[in-house]
Amino acid sequence: MTETPPLLNVSDISLSFGGVHALTDVSFQVAKGEIFSIIGPNGAGKTSMLNCISGRYQPNKGSIRFREKELIGLRPNDRCTLGIGRTFQNLALFAHMTVLDNIMVGRHHLLKNNFLTGSVYWLFGARKEELRHRAEVEDIIDFLEIAHIRKSIAGTLSYGLRKRVELARAVALRPDLILLDEPMAGMNLEEKEDMARYIIDLNEEWGMTVVMIEHDMGVVMDISHRVMVLDFGKKIAAGLPDEVLANPRVKKAYLGEDDDETAADDAARTGEVA
Hints:
The chain is of the alpha/beta class. The chain folds into 2 domains: 1-83 and 174-247, Rossmann fold, CATH 3.40.50; 94-172, no CATH class. 41% of the residues lie in helices and 22% in strands. The protein contains 11 helices and 10 strands. It has helices at 46-54, 76-82, 99-105, 115-124, 126-143, 159-172, 189-204, 217-223, 241-246, 248-255, 260-270; strands spanning 8-17, 20-30, 35-39, 61-66, 69-70, 84-86, 177-181, 209-213, 226-231, 234-239. Strands 6-7-8-3-9-10 form a 6-stranded mixed sheet, with helices on both faces. Helix 3 packs parallel to helix 6 (159-172).
């Protein structure tokens, strides 16, 4: 039986800013239907990795393939059209617009507006398509339980609700792969529990593959299928959540622990005697 290729295949990605190496030879694969989390200390290169996948950054070397199509060189808009959506660590909503209008922005890549069919479309199809897109948006609003704020100005909402609206805008694209950059940052416990439930439902019920950065280790270990750890731009571990959590190199990166096993591993790599 032929093995199913990964939905996302990242190979030997390196990214530098001047003399600073943000990522060094990072490789991983994400299967269709996974919740794949990227963790690591501050400055480890997690957001830089998402930016390389989404097209905000162009890596110095390496390959990123989505459904076996090379993404390097494609513009962010082209990647959205292929079915990649994302949220941002720092909220990127249009603060002066309503929640409904912010979410509708997420549908713009799906609008029909090519030159050859444009005039006919606007005469006969625009109203019908607008109604269809609004129906899709209303489904998302109901799913994320934000109907009560649908006409509110985004900039007037609490931080937790704005994070939910940003997720709604990313979901509006109906992506096959959604990149979530710290979706639960700044939330209280109840808001985190709600967001975790939404992410699980997007994965299981809406069929979205998730690549997520998150600092809340409890959430990561509870909802992730696999986890990768970055430290100083390098991959130091990857695997099932429990395996990664028990990895001595991960403990060292997060807690500064340096036990005998870690020291022996370091010695083996450098050729020194522990």
